[in-house]
Design a protein that fits this description.
mainly alpha
């Protein structure tokens, strides 16, 4: 039986993995670590500082939430465990003391002091670890598994996109903060104007001292800032609780700015503690102040304590519902807590309060996308770029949505616009390449992926996509280089291994291709493509039994696959198991009724099974579809001869030789004609 070898080794189409359309982390609500060990220790110190503040305020449950989060990251942290146990005991004492005599209150106070002291000790130790002051870090588990590497790469990619979004929104947020500060000053001046002349002068002096302190913090002169703030607070007039609380809140906000500018330094850590302390003092003096809750909300967001952030920011919004920055920050906290419906409501509140605040529209777009409301998300992103025409990351998200909706032209235009304003945006380059590739424009895809790889040469997914494009362009040696890089970066990715196998096979490295396909099949038990190609290779090289092993595995996974059934038809034909061969060729033909190669092989299987009438009908159908299929015409003539229909056999074979005198099997045809 002369089965078509090309059909046995049929190239299986590869589906390009597009860049994952993961919902981007909204805005700048992500802490980007510059050094993994020091950043983790700094986060630990920050979290403990916040826990200490909660304990001092007898909010033991909130402190326990923070401590439990630390223990989830490192269950062997004995110092945190000891602190957690003491906090639990303090909570029990508090519950017992409710309604008890003053003596019990004194016991609770004593317990609080002990817990606070322990927190201070732990925070100090963590801070020392963060800055290499002699502490020995506990051994880190090495992330040697491929899954861990992939996760790390995905996290880095998400952080990069979040950072780009934060940079894009930074100017608008800076303007918004300045506007809010100006509004606060105006309101305070109006309130000040109603005071006595002597009190006005005193309050203005306090305002000047605090303003100087803020400038000192911006210059990282924390010592001067501390002195100026102390002078201001010493001059605080009695009976002016509202004014005092406002000033305390401003000091807290200033210290938060100092922390955000240098999170990992000792001065930055101290600034964080001061921000928490002054914010709490402000609330204690006047619970109606919104700003200190906003400050604490931003601190919790930075520490990724989303529930606590939401609690503080909700209170800030309740106290000052017309401040659009408060609802905006609340929306980001909700989004990061994956509470998308609440995030949507918060961002819509922001856009209602400040319709020209473009970061709110961008973040609303991301939230609507997370909710699966693509058309509304698209409208929100378009509103963002209408307000900020160079909003590159918003154009990128528009492109992603249009790509999802099948608007290739619109997606390409959006990604191209994003790159006009941000030429080195790797995410936009990857998306553009994937979109071009999906449209079959491999030359443009090659250029886009090439630019992305200049910026991030080791990115596994981009190397994989470039390999796919190079294969499509028949640049097989280059495809092998990129496929190998993808596998080196992510060895256990079955799709990358499969593509590596394709590149090896295209370069005629069959043994290595078999090894790559085998690895892909072992890594993903539900992946049919490597099994199909293994079957085709073993079949082409004369091992039909081995081919059947893999093809039957593929059939069990996907019995409706054209490639699986077609190759099974060929494998069974090789073993002359004609009924099985016919069964699978017929299945394949149902899926691709215009595939003439399958129809020819089906006709041959009918002949092998002695079912000449079925073979005749299959050949007749084939020559109707392709009148110049010389092998089909020849075999049709032979089939007529086998059926004893000499007239039709003579007519078909004579017509063949007349139309194609140089037909390769002319001698065999003439011999049949002579015997009729």
């Amino acid at each position: 039986m002369n089965t078509d070898k090309k059909q046995k080794k049929k190239v299986i189409a590869i589906a390009l993995i597009g860049v994952a359309l993961v919902i981007g982390l909204v805005g700048s609500g992500i802490l980007i670590y510059r050094g993994m060990l020091s950043a983790k220790a700094a986060k630990r110190a920050n979290t403990l500082a916040l826990a200490r503040d909660y304990i001092e305020r007898a909010e033991y449950q909130r402190a326990l939430n923070l401590l439990d989060a630390l223990l989830i990251e490192n269950a062997e942290d004995e110092e945190v465990r000891e602190l957690r146990d003491r906090a639990i005991e303090a909570l029990k004492q508090q519950e017992l003391s409710q309604g008890s005599a003053p003596k019990d209150s004194e016991a609770v106070s004593s317990a609080l002091k002990e817990v606070s002291k322990a927190v201070e000790s732990v925070a100090k130790a963590a801070s020392q670890t963060a800055h290499g002051t002699g502490s020995t870090a506990s051994p880190q588990t090495s992330e040697t598994t491929d899954a861990a590497r992939r996760k790390a790469l995905e996290e880095e990619r998400a952080k990069a996109e979040a950072a780009a979004a934060a940079r894009a929104a930074a100017e608008a947020e800076r303007r918004a903060a300045e506007e809010a500060e100006a509004a606060r000053r105006k309101a305070q001046e109006e309130e000040l104007a109603r005071k006595s002349r002597e009190l006005q002068e005193r309050m203005r002096l306090i305002n000047d001292l605090i303003a100087q302190g803020k400038n000192s913090i911006q210059k990282k002169d924390f010592s001067s800032a501390r002195d100026l703030f102390s002078q201001a607070l010493e001059r605080m007039p009695e009976g002016e609780a509202r004014f005092q609380a406002q000033k305390l809140a401003e000091i807290a906000d200033a210290y938060l700015g100092g922390y955000m500018a240098d999170k990992e330094s000792e001065t930055g850590q101290n600034a964080l503690k001061e921000a928490i302390r002054y914010a709490r003092e402000s609330i204690k003096v006047d619970p109606s102040q919104a700003l200190p809750h906003y400050t604490l909300g931003k601190i919790n967001s930075d520490l990724r304590q989303w529930d606590n952030a939401i609690t503080e920011l909700k209170e800030a919004n309740r106290l000052d519902p017309k401040n659009y920055l408060y609802s905006f920050e609340l929306g980001r906290a909700y989004f990061n807590a994956r509470k998308y419906a609440e995030a949507r409501q918060a961002f819509e509140t922001t856009t209602a309060l400040k319709a020209d605040f473009e970061p709110a529209w961008y973040n609303l777009g991301g939230t609507l996308r997370a909710l699966g409301r693509l058309d509304e998300a698209l409208s929100a992103y378009r509103r963002a770029v209408s307000l900020k025409p160079d909003y590159a990351v918003a154009y990128r998200e528009i492109g992603r949505i249009l790509s999802t909706k099948g608007d290739t032209k619109g997606a390409i235009q959006a990604f191209t616009t994003a790159l006009t304003y941000m030429p080195d945006d790797v995410a936009s380059l990857r998306e553009l390449g994937a979109t071009y590739s999906g449209a079959g424009n491999y030359g443009e895809a090659e250029q886009a992926f090439g630019k992305a790889l200049v910026l991030q040469p080791q990115d596994a997914q981009t190397n994989y996509n470039m390999a796919v494009v190079k294969l499509a362009l028949k640049k097989n040696d280059e495809a092998l280089t990129y496929a190998a890089r993808a596998v080196q970066s992510s060895e256990s990715n079955a799709v990358y291994q499969y593509t590596y196998g394709l590149a090896l096979e295209a370069n005629n490295k069959i043994d290595e291709a078999i090894m790559a396909y085998t690895r892909a099949a072992n890594q993903d038990k539900k992946y049919t493509k490597p099994r199909i190609n293994l079957g085709a290779l073993y079949l082409a090289n004369g091992f039909p039994d081995k081919a059947l092993d893999y093809l039957l595995e593929a059939y069990a996974i996907d019995p409706k696959s054209f490639e699986v059934n077609n190759n099974l038809g060929a494998a069974y034909a090789k073993k002359e198991l004609w009924d099985k061969s016919i069964e699978h060729y017929e299945r394949a033909l149902v899926m691709e009724p215009k595939n003439n190669v399958v129809r020819l092989n089906l006709a041959r299987a009918y002949v092998g099974a002695g079912r000449f009438e079925k073979a005749r009908d299959a050949y007749l159908e084939l020559v109707k579809l392709d009148s110049n299929n010389w092998d089909a015409l020849f075999e049709l003539g032979k089939t007529y001869a086998s059926l004893g229909d000499a007239a039709n056999a003579r007519q078909r074979l004579s017509d063949l030789l007349k139309r194609n005198p140089s037909y390769s099997r002319r001698g065999e045809a003439e011999k049949i004609l002579a015997g009729l």
